[in-house]
Every structure is written in C-alpha cells, then in structure tokens.
Amino acid sequence: MNSTALQSALREWAMLIRSARFWATFAIVVAIFVAMGPSGTMEDMGLAERAAFWTLLHAAAWAVAISIITLAEIWLREHISSTLVLLTINAVLATPFVAAAVELVRWSWLSLPPTTLSYGSQFAVCLPLSILFSLLTHMTMSAKPAASTASQPTVSAAAIPQEPPPLLARLKPDIRGPILHLTVEDHYTVVTTTRGCQLVLLRFSDALRELGEIDGLQTHRSHWVAAAHVEGLAKAGGRFAVRLKSGTVVPVSRSYADSVRRRFGDIRDIGERQPLA
C-alpha cells in the first residue's frame, strides 16, 4: 500500500468516526437486531447479553467492511465513473472479510466453530449489509469537509453569478462565494473562494466541469484560477506564475504557459519572497 492511499484512507476513517450519520445508522441497525433477536439470540440470551453480542458483532463487521470499502473506494474511483458500479464492487470485495469477522465473533461468543456451510450462509447475509456499508461510506466520503480559513487573505467580494456553478453546492454555506482558485491535494480538490477554502472529495477534472460558466484558465495540471481575480503574471523564485488579487501566487507549467501569457499579458518579477500556492 502506498503512503498516499494510506494517508487518504486514514483521513476518510477519521471523517466516518466524526459522522453523525454513521453512528445513527449503526445504532439503528444494532437496535433492530437486539429487538428481533435473530439466530436464536432471543431465546438463548437476555436483553443485556443480546445487546452486548450484537453490538460486538456489528462493531467487528462494520470495522472490517469500512476498512476494505474505504481502500477500494480510493483505489477504484479514479477508474470507475458509475457510482452504482463502484458501490457494488466495493460491497462484493468487502463481503468475504465481513463474513469471516462475523464467523469469528460467533465462534468466540457462542462456541460455534466455522464451517463451509455456516460461512456460506454468513456470506449471503453479509452481502446486503456490505451494500449498506458501501453506501454509507460513499455518502460520508462525499461529504464536504471544511478547511480552516484562518490563513486566507481578505479580498473584495465579487458578485456570485446568477446561476451558481454546481461546485458551490458542495461547499458549506459559510464558504460559498466567488471562486478564486482550485488546486489538488491528494484525492481532494481544494476550492478557494472569497470567503475561505474547503477540501472537497472530488477529482480535479470533475471539479473543473462543475465550474459552470465561470471565466477562468487552467495554469497547471493541479491548478485553475478565475480570470476576474488575476492581478497579473509574475516570476517567483525564477518560476513563471500567476498572481491573484488576494496575493496568492499560483504556478504555471510549461504546457500551459503560452495560453496563460495570451490571456493575462506581461510578466513582472515579484522577487523571491512570494511563495507559490
């Protein structure tokens, strides 16, 4: 496993742990199993033991499922555009591991050693549960985590277009404003507006499509800038760059240099002091 995938997975797991939707769903599912008492647990266990058993079993199953599904989501989402196909593959990949976890809990608690027949039965039961896990994980990973705005410069607010771009809907309400800059960070796109910035779990190419009619230009494979907020071109540390009115300096790669020059004009040297975004 490469460090980037692991870093992204750890970030997603942290998001899930903080998700109210996740814990609410977990509590509802466990409560249903405790109330119904399937697999003979209603007859063989009291309420407290039944609650403990199903909580432990689901905790193990959910932990295994979400770990597998999160990693699968990170690895596959760049190659699979269909959400339905992605969710199905994630669930199928997780199900054998979830069934194994359930069998181990049943063995340790009920002294029922796993057999081929019992594992096959658990596999059939765990497949729909894995689809639930896959959907819940995908929904939480698609949530819009907010980034700190403390370091963001204050800029003059511009009017939001009458038809807001779809990308704005992914931002928290207090971050929504004219979009200044997009950049890539791991598997996220960082969206910077006049009101701050936010990490969005979205491929950069998809984020560019969701800009709608905003006038702007890609300056680098990992950067896009809004034309209305460009102050001019610059050289920072010997590198060609675009300087925004906010003071942010955005790098320009060779493949985009000609189009950037045609659009934004002359270059002026701003020295070594300005860091590149």
From TrEMBL:
Keyword Membrane: yes
GO molecular function: DNA binding
Domain of life: Bacteria
HTH LytTR-type domain span: 179-266
PROSITE patterns according to UniProt: HTH_LYTTR
Keyword tRNA-binding included in the entry's annotation: no
Alphabetic keyword roster: DNA-binding, Membrane, Transmembrane, Transmembrane helix
Record-annotated membrane-spanning stretches: 20-39, 51-72, 84-105, 117-136
Pfam family, one: LytTR
The name this protein goes by in its record: DNA-binding protein
Lineage: Bacteria, Pseudomonadati, Pseudomonadota, Alphaproteobacteria, Hyphomicrobiales
